[in-house]
């Protein structure tokens, strides 16, 4: 997804902007650019491809400036070309933009009628021309932007500079994340605070509809022309710990961080083998009233939600539905009172999940229905955390690799904590079972460490996937979503076509695909479904399929011709999905590395999908 960095300082900010863009690279992008104001002129460089290309161009042209805006673009309107890269300029004005201006075509027609020439195919360029046009009727840049914003439809964030205001940076947040970094005698903006950590750890989180004017010494935020107060928050220093360290890729580092991440996540809720009395205390009254749960999420977070459904129903005796946010938000679902709506999201900014949440709240209010909203999220300052009644943080630390790993397993841990809490309040789960499961949860970091010992073995097996075109993942029960997740991981980063199936569906279609060339990954913990799964394995082998089985040592599944077994430690069936996630992550990672793909930033994908 696109990224914004901007700043106004006394020193030249060229290097700060480039460093900020590098820190946003993980989000996925296809071109980059920056614009500075120097001696009444806009100096701009844009390049297709990596930020390193832009950096080289900026070094060669040696442009400097103490006010500027920069951008990584992920193409939505128009191809990834230099002309389409941001910033876009209209005379004295330069603009960077995240999100989408839905009515840009109408606006473009009007602007062309006024004589404006368009040099790109983007929706963004209309904003530059509109601000330029508005500046004909007011000398004030802020007022000009305030005139333009009501004309724009869509969800967006903007950074705007003007050569006639060489000490002012304007920022707009309307549906796309934007934070202000508060410095000493200098101030910054970015779509992600991570970009600004080298220059500050103090942030103002803009709210939807905010327009801010930044100078070196001042930050003023306005809503509908009225100044509003927004608090400055200081960020925990540990969040800045986002480097690859000894690992070749962020993804591998994040896979190995899972024991610690899970420990952090459960520590906030557990005291010995019991839930802490203060864990989600504020939510107790609301939780005691809920009659069902609706989970809404996208991508990997949706797979976590699917496992939540099994657990909510089996453990807490509560009906639970789970749905992909992009479907949920548009199909006018019936909003039912006394429902707990749970958004699961690593970023807390995913456009579809956020829109589904907002729509649900609006419709519940219109019908006067009592609902409770909650987010399971990895970013404490995100929109979803701010807009739900309650939140439970996954304390995984920043996740940089586009393919989610530690965020996923910590989401599962957080879901389990939430389910235990609700089950306890509703007295659907007894203290002994809570004690048993929490004891297992404390044990999970160690079990994951043991599972990681299989890394070399999994690397060896991954060589057998390198030349393959297709792959199937099969599991039953809570391993079915892990099969979906395994297939998603493999396709995302290795570009091998992969499908996950509930093993019971094998005969209803995917078996037709099985032949000598089809690797089939089986997730086989030693649970009550194991015998049925073994029958599915026979069915695959009878058709020549090659099996790669992740199984419990007690499962009795052994290595044989065209059947490769990796032993995963014995775990209770509640924790099996967390533990079995690890070998499928490692498998996908090694296959991708062997195929030479860009593991941390796979083609066409973005970490945080903040537009539809
Ligand atoms: C993108 C990411 C996935 C993530 C999904 C949902 O597709 O690449 O890793 O699962 O968005 O993101 P969220 O931040 O809402 O969990």
Describe the structure.
The protein contains 18 helices and 27 strands. It has 3 domains: 3-240, 4-Layer Sandwich (Glutamine Phosphoribosylpyrophosphate, subunit 1, domain 1); 249-447, Glucose-6-phosphate isomerase like protein, domain 1 (Rossmann fold, 3-Layer(aba) Sandwich); 453-601, Glucose-6-phosphate isomerase like protein, domain 1 (Rossmann fold, 3-Layer(aba) Sandwich), CATH 3.40.50. The longest helix is centred in the C-terminal third of the chain and has 22 residues, at 431-452. The protein has 612 residues and is α/β, with parallel strands linked by helices. α15 packs across α18. The strands form 5 sheets. Strands 3-2-4-1-10-9-11-15 form an 8-stranded antiparallel sheet, covered by helices on one side. Bound molecules: 6-O-phosphono-alpha-D-glucopyranose. The site of 6-O-phosphono-alpha-D-glucopyranose has 15 residues, from α9.
């Amino acid at each position: 997804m696109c990224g914004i960095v901007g700043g106004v300082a006394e020193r030249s900010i060229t290097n700060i902007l480039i460093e900020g863009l590098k820190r946003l690279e993980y989000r996925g992008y296809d071109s980059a650019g920056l614009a500075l104001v120097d001696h009444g002129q806009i100096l701009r460089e844009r390049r297709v491809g990596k930020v390193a290309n832009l950096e080289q161009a900026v070094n060669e042209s040696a442009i400097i400036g103490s006010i500027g805006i920069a951008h990584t673009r992920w193409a939505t309107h128009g191809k990834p070309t230099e002309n389409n890269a941001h910033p876009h300029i209209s005379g004295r004005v330069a603009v960077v933009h995240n999100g989408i201006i839905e009515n840009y075509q109408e606006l473009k027609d009007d602007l062309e009628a006024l004589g404006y020439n368009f040099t790109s195919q983007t929706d963004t360029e209309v904003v530059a021309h509109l601000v330029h046009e508005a500046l004909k009727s007011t000398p004030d840049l802020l007022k000009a932007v305030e005139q333009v914003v009501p004309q724009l439809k869509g969800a967006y964030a903007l950074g705007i500079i003007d050569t006639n205001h060489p000490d002012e940076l304007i920022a707009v947040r309307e549906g796309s994340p934007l934070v202000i970094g508060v410095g000493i005698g200098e101030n910054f903006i970015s779509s992600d605070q991570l970009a600004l950590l080298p220059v500050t750890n103090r942030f103002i989180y803009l709210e939807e509809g905010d327009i801010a004017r930044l100078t070196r010494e001042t930050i003023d935020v306005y809503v509908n022309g009225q100044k509003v107060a927004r608090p400055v928050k200081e960020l925990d220093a540990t969040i800045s710990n986002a480097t690859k360290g000894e690992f070749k890729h962020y993804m591998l580092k994040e896979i190995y961080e899972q024991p610690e991440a899970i420990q952090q996540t459960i520590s906030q809720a557990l005291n010995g083998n019991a839930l802490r009395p203060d864990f989600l205390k504020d939510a107790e009254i609301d939780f005691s009233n809920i009659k069902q749960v609706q989970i809404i999420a996208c991508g990997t977070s949706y797979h976590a939600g699917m496992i939540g459904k099994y657990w909510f129903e089996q453990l807490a005796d509560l009906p639970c539905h789970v749905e992909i946010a992009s479907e949920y938000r548009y199909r006018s679902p019936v909003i039912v009172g006394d429902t707990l709506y749970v958004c699961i999201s690593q970023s807390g900014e995913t456009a579809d999940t956020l829109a589904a949440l907002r729509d649900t709240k609006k419709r519940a209010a219109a019908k006067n229905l009592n609902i409770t909203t909650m987010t399971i999220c990895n970013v404490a300052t995100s929109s979803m955390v701010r807009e739900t009644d309650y939140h439970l943080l996954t304390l995984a630390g920043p996740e940089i690799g586009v393919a989610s790993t530690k965020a996923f397993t910590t989401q599962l841990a957080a879901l389990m904590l939430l389910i235990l809490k609700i089950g306890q309040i509703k007295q659907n789960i007894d203290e002994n079972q809570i004690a048993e499961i929490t004891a297992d949860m404390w044990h999970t970091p160690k079990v994951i460490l043991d599972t990681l010992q299989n890394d070399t073995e999994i690397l060896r097996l991954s060589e057998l996937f390198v030349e393959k075109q297709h792959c199937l993942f099969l599991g039953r029960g809570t391993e079915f979503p892990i099969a979906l997740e395994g297939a998603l991981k493999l396709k995302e980063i290795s570009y091998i076509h992969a499908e996950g199936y509930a093993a019971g569906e094998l005969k209803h279609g995917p078996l037709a695909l099985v032949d000598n060339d089809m690797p089939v990954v089986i997730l086989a913990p030693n649970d009550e479904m194991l015998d049925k799964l073994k029958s599915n394995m026979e069915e695959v082998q009878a058709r020549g399929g090659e099996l790669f089985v992740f199984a419990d040592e007690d499962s009795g599944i052994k290595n044989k011709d065209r059947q490769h077994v990796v032993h995963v430690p014995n775990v209770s069936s509640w924790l099996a999905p967390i533990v079995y996630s690890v070998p499928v992550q490692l498998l996908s990672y090694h296959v991708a590395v062997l195929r030479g793909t860009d593991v941390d930033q796979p083609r066409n994908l973005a970490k945080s999908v903040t537009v539809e």
